[in-house]
Amino acid sequence: MSTDLPHTSGAPTLEDVARLAGVSRATVSRVINGIRNVAPDIQEAVHRAIAATGYVPNRAARSLVTRRTGAVALVVSGAGDAEGGEPFESRVFADPFFGRVAGGVVGYLRPRGIHPVLMLADSAQTRDDVVSFLRQGSADGALVVSTHGEDPLPKLLVDAGLPAVLWARPARPIPISYVDLAHRAGAALAADRLVARGCRRVATISGPFDVPAAQDRLSGFQEAMAGHGHPYVPAVEGDFMPASGEAGMHRLIKEHPDIDGVFVANDLMAQGALLALRDLGRRVPEDIAVIGFDDSAAVTCRPPLTTVRQPMEDMAAEMARLLLAHAADPDFQVTSVIMRPTLVVRESA
Amino acid sequence: MSTDLPHTSGAPTLEDVARLAGVSRATVSRVINGIRNVAPDIQEAVHRAIAATGYVPNRAARSLVTRRTGAVALVVSGAGDAEGGEPFESRVFADPFFGRVAGGVVGYLRPRGIHPVLMLADSAQTRDDVVSFLRQGSADGALVVSTHGEDPLPKLLVDAGLPAVLWARPARPIPISYVDLAHRAGAALAADRLVARGCRRVATISGPFDVPAAQDRLSGFQEAMAGHGHPYVPAVEGDFMPASGEAGMHRLIKEHPDIDGVFVANDLMAQGALLALRDLGRRVPEDIAVIGFDDSAAVTCRPPLTTVRQPMEDMAAEMARLLLAHAADPDFQVTSVIMRPTLVVRESA
DNA sequence: CTGAAAGCGCTAACAC
DNA sequence: GTGTTAGCGCTTTCAG
């Protein structure tokens, strides 16, 4: 309870401000939207009136005429047909990967006054919800992060003519902008390091084969190792979760007891692999060197993990930048931005 | 210009649907909003017209008249004056705690057609942004999760008369609804377990003293131990991050080499503590039993962590429920919901 | 049970 | 430079 001035019913409107400043609504609108051609003294008066009334423009009204909301959908899209376990929501948001992407998006959007709306798309129903949401004009576009290779959402978005930008190249090509990492180059960084350290019997724990990024990391690694004169690299498949890294490491050591270096396709699995190595009594990096990928869980590993860093925040920010460009200009060219990974050397290799 | 087909410029509007169904806009609106008193055959015709045009109601227009958006702000509020390190965005969203809360919120909101808008408030400026956002009518209320005890945001919200619900009791009492956990009871669960296991020399690693929940967990633990005949419990303060758990454990062992049980105020620190114990050559739980709190990182610990589970998803859902109630009815009573923790026994104690 | 009409609060031509 | 005038697309009395 504080208002004493505008004694109309609800919140102050443009009308109230205009009346108090002794000008028209249009002029107030001009001042608020920073349009020039307004006499300094009038601007002054308007600003005073705004402050006096505590006026805040109504977003719906503005949106109705400008046809843009200051929002974008941040959608995490996945299978959702999860075999038991926790609900999709918890699994996905608890992943440090999502957290960093969200952080990068917010970091870019916030200074620009745009807000991300969190959405989950894990079924035909919820994918349609995303499309409807955008068609309703509830957001100006969508940033989509798919956890699965064959996600149908990107195509739905393209077909509906809605602005959208993807995290990572889609499994099958569609005309949509995306931001990705040079996975093969990153894997090569790991191979180079392992070889430079003197590792002779190197293996790898890959991500799930149906994820393009996992394939790229695997083939990029094998190729780089071949280039170093190691045509055969034992590999086991994981699912990017810690437990699979642990299991994978056990299997690798069992089948190839003499390996002295391993490239693990992400840090979460590397964390599990390190645990396994510890249980097996192998010292890292003395007995076996380990390199992860992502730089997402590296510091909480023991020993601290040498890893290939994926600049997730920068990539997410780039997605946001592209989306805003698409939203502002429907004719903006579809593009892909591929960012470079770097090797972060800690103690494990 | 205007043909008779829905070949107007942009997206189909109510008008288009009405014309095609041969009724008035009002009737279509009634059908869409599920208002009875519409003849079945007319409903039928309207639905057909909707399908034929691919009509989707415009959110801004609806919002303008109903004065409600289908959105709520999900704000993470903190100090932000962080000493170096990563930006607030990344730190906060990468925390599994945030992920689970977001998951719980989305799980509750999604079936109800409400969408959470992600916001960060870590400075006077950004706190005002949150208030403005709500005053603009961009969201119907705010769900706020403070990372700091003395967060000014809740009071700003209350003073502005905006619907809001907090995660956890605010440091100083203000008339606002919140959802919290019975931290003392949870700590007692840990104390009981440790004592029942036969631990005689028990210590604790607490959270930062300026966080009410940390204080409650500490005093609740001390009190419960006192009840078991252990009036003195060595304690060191951590900051809820893994590194502080590790450091705290080292300090504890150094100052009290004979302890055989420790209660760590959250799982992240417990993870660090476990690492320290491993380095020190102490077996868990044989030499020393460890109990964490939250059940957030418990499974990736080695050994799997016995911990006090905080039902974060349920708590977050409850926050959302309360917020919607407040938003729907301005006279809805301010309430607090305190949920019960449970002990999850794994291997560490 | 259905239609006509009046706005919700704002921006954007178009006048002056 | 500034005011006037139309709507943006929808819900909601109020008649009938």
Automatic annotation (TrEMBL), chains A, B:
Record carries keyword Iron: no
Stored SUPFAM superfamilies: lambda repressor-like DNA-binding domains, Periplasmic binding protein-like I
Record's keyword annotation contains Glycoprotein: no
Alphabetic keyword roster: DNA-binding, Transcription, Transcription regulation
Positions of the HTH cro/C1-type domain: 13-56
Domain HTH lacI-type: 12-66
InterPro entries reported in the protein's UniProt record: Cro/C1-type_HTH, HTH_LacI, LacI/GalR-like_sensor, Lambda_DNA-bd_dom_sf, Peripla_BP_I
One GO MF term: transcription cis-regulatory region binding
Domain of life: Bacteria
PANTHER family the UniProt entry points to: HTH-TYPE TRANSCRIPTIONAL REGULATOR GALS, LACI-RELATED TRANSCRIPTIONAL REPRESSOR
Name of the protein: LacI family transcriptional regulator
Organism: Microbispora bryophytorum
